[in-house]
Amino acid sequence: MEHEGTYDAPGARGGPPHGAADAAAPTAGAPPWPRQQPGSPEPPPPPHAVPPMPLGAPPLMPLGEPSSTPVEAPPPPRTAPQQSGAAHGAAHGAVSRERSPFLTWLRASRIPAGPGIWAYGYRPKPPEEPDRIPGRQLLSGAVIALLCGWLLGSLLWNGYLGTYWVWPLTVLTPDSWHKGMAAVWTAYIYYAICLGALLVVFGRLGRWPQVWRRYVAPLLSRLWDDGGVVPAAVGGSRQDPADWPQLRAGGAHEAADRLGAEARAGLMNDVDHSRIERAWQSVRVQPGRLAAFTETVLRHGAAACAHPSGARDLPVRAARHDLVTRQVRIGTAVDDERNPYVHRGAGCALDPGLLGTSLLAVGPPGSGKTDRLVRPVLESLCLQALAGRAAVVAVGAAGAGLAPDEAFDVVVRIGRQDSAYDLDLYGGTDDPDEAAAVLAEGLVGDLTATLPGEGGRRAATVLSQILGPYRAAHGRFPSVPELRELLDGSPSAVGALRTALADTGHDALIREVDARERQAHRPGDAGPMLADRLALLDRPAFARFFDTATPSRTFSLRALEHPLRVRIDLPERGHAEASRMLARLVLAQFTECAVARGDRSLFACLVLDDATHAVTHEAVRGLARLRSANAGAVLTLRTLDDVPEALRSALLGAVGCRMAFSGVTTWDGARFAEVWGKEWVETRDVTDRQIIAHEPLTRVTHVVRRLVTGRAVTAQSVTVRKVERERWSASELAHGVPAGHAVLSVTSVRGASAPPVLVDLQR
Fold first, then answer.
1. What is the pLDDT of residue 41?
2. For residue 8, what is the DSSP state?
3. What DSSP letter does each residue of 410-460 carry, written as one string?
4. Are 13 and 65 in contact (CB under 8 A)?
5. What is each CA distance from 519 to 447, 461, 487, 510, 610, in whole angstroms?
6. Cross-strand pairs, 390
7. Buried (b) or exposed (e) across 229-244, using 16+ Cβ within 10 A?
């Protein structure tokens, strides 16, 4: 904590830069976040509990540190005398603020409904009816029964059917009841009994109770619903989430009053709510920070504990988010028989509890992988990073438009001279062996299966024989040109390294250099191959990049312990092979750094748009380890053919969430069908058999029916049985998924899973 009396949010120091809160906070009369439209179904709380981040976490890193000038607190809500107008206008303003989009979102119901279901406003469906009557048949039967009952009642009332139905009234009642008001009351009671009997009989014939339950009752419940607004009741206001009951229960009454006032005044948005709630979780771990937390909230209000960038929202939102459950909605499950009953018509969403098992999406270009999946997920992770709950690294081709530059803290444009940041080629580690293993995976990870022996281990050994002595002699790792010279076995470069080791007293490491020289002359040495691959990065376009002499502008994935938003643009145009090599390098560094984090309270996610030739044996092993490290990855592929054949099944087994877009080939569909397995289904076989009549009259009847219809008289035989069939066959995935749709299956980090669901990504 840098300033006395201020509270530091996890991963952030002090408040935002001076004026950031004023610029980001909306005015009191405007909606706090108009891009979020409430109203939709589904997410359970995160399937796994994430431990709060300790308050003593290091600062974000020197990439634009916030100013030490304290931020000016937003103005408190206006009191009644300050408002213009009479008491009626003040009351009307209070009601409008109570129904603001933020308060409606905060107070909406969220019912846990299973993994992958959008929980915001979700309403559970009634139990499934196996013999459910079709709606058209049900309504037509109800109308026909109503008309028949009406006709019969009219005929009886007007005497067209005689007066026999009045006979019980005249026979079973005393004669004294047939005079005066007693006769009137008796007659009308009898008429009511007859009318009730008609309603009961024709109501059962027309199935009116089913019509009520299926159509009328849901309509009345929607009309009665007040949109999730909790009325301010005496003695019950503390149960209102806008009053921050968790803070009051912990003793922070003044902070709860300030935050509740700002929420009702329109000065708070969903990111502020999630960020302050995250900070409160850390206070519960260290109760001694309660006073500092309260003081910070009283000073800054909704802008307290802000992200080091000072941002409180993204410049643009294109998807629907719910930061209470940390979900992002990507579509709606189609009301189709192939979908599970619970999912039909419900929204489909993703959250860190699902992304923690990693997600693989396969689909041809133009199927919507980037627009319908990558961008919403990346947008959600950026919002969670602003709330201090996640760290995200997005990797894609330059110009892919994953998100605007303003949505990120660090933008690394490899190959462009206007890039403000550089990428650490060695992953920010000081261990030469670890740096060698990660660099070897990035350089030749796609060739290890074709190399003799253990190709990956041999390449890592070659690099460690160079990186270890060089770091001991110079205090840093070599740059790309220096490492290429050493791998090529340049006599001048090797001699200079040997001299530097002797001058610095590292005589023992000279043996590593000598061993490297001896192995360089053996057949099958990995040095020349590493040098050839490294030559792809030793180009004029990358002259300013991967420089180890100026670490001030170098970004390292070791910063995943902070709520960072990072985007790495790869030079796909003109340097396609180098881009694939860098994608493998970033994937290897992410899997290594995410697992090696000391503080795993933040959810770390890598979003790799187009993982072509980036999946290797080590990458598959790394993806499996992310699940236990509160981290995950989102990978997209045009086809599974971009992955080595030996790794396709292993890749589908290593990820917990799988997504097949429309247009996949039958070969790709066969892999998905295999991993999704089979299920027991009920089938009905209908057989028509000809009826042979032996009676003369029956034969004549059959002959007449055959002359009229032109067909023999038959009877149907129905056989019902259960068989095991694929949930989605390869042919259905290749030809039965409409455009703009995808089949998605999810698994949570706790093991809860959902079968594959056909999702409409345009709803």
1. 36
2. P
3. EEEETT-TT-S-EE-TTTT---HHHHHHHHHHHHHTTTTTTSSSSHHHHHH
4. yes
5. 20, 11, 11, 14, 37
6. 603
7. bbeeeeeeeeebbbbb
**Predicted local confidence at residue 454, as pLDDT:** 59
Distance, in Å, from the CA atom of 118 to the CA atom of 128, rounded to the nearest integer, reads: 20
Strands 327-333 and 320-322, by their bridges, are antiparallel
Concatenated DSSP letters for 540-570?
Answer: GGGTTSS-SS-GGGEE-GGGGGS--EEEEEE
**How much is the pLDDT for 692?**
81
Question: Do 631 and 599 touch, CB atoms closer than 8 A?
Answer: no
Work out the burial of residue 596: count CB atoms within 10 Å of its CB; fewer than 13 is exposed, 13-18 middle, 19 or more buried.
Answer: middle
By the 8 A CB rule, do 673 and 733 touch?
Answer: yes
What's phi and psi for 567, nearest 5 deg?
A: -130, 130
User: What pLDDT is attached to residue 455?
Assistant: 59
- What lies within 8 Å, CB to CB, of 752 at 6+ separation is 47, 114, 115
User: Does an H or E element contain 132, and which?
Assistant: none
The one-letter amino acid code at 17 reads P
- The pair of structure tokens assigned to 195 is 């009318």
* Rounded-to-integer distance, Cα 449 and Cα 618, Å: 11
| Sole residue written with tokens 């009920």 | 682
The pLDDT value given to residue 164: 80
C-alpha count within 13 angstroms, C-beta hemisphere, residue 392: 30
Per-residue model confidence (pLDDT) at position 73: 31
Which tokens go with 674?
Answer: 């295999």
The residues facing 42 across adjacent strands are 119
Q: Enter the tokens of residue 167.
A: 């006979």
State the pLDDT at residue 97: 54
Please state, in angstroms and rounded to a whole number, the distance separating the CA atoms of residues 264 and 102: 9
pTM of the model: 0.77
Cβ atoms of residues 509 and 501 within 8 Å:
yes
CA 455 to chain centre: 37
CB 339 within 8 A of CB 758: yes
Task: Say what the pLDDT of residue 46 is.
Answer: 35
CA–CA gap between residue 138 and residue 540 (Å, rounded): 74
Q: How many residues does the chain have?
A: 763
**What is the predicted pLDDT for the residue at 688?**
79
Residue located via tokens 């709330």: 387
The token duo for 732 is: 């259905």
Q: Tell me which residue has tokens 């005398």.
A: 81
Q: Is 22 within 8 Å of 573 (Cβ atoms)?
A: no
Mean pLDDT by 10 residues, the chain (763 residues): 36 34 32 33 34 33 31 33 39 55 91 92 80 82 91 88 80 72 81 90 89 85 60 50 91 93 93 95 91 94 93 94 96 92 94 97 94 96 96 93 92 90 91 92 82 70 92 91 90 90 88 87 84 91 85 87 94 89 95 93 95 92 94 96 92 96 95 92 80 82 79 81 89 95 96 95 90
Question: For residue 451, what pLDDT is reported?
Answer: 62
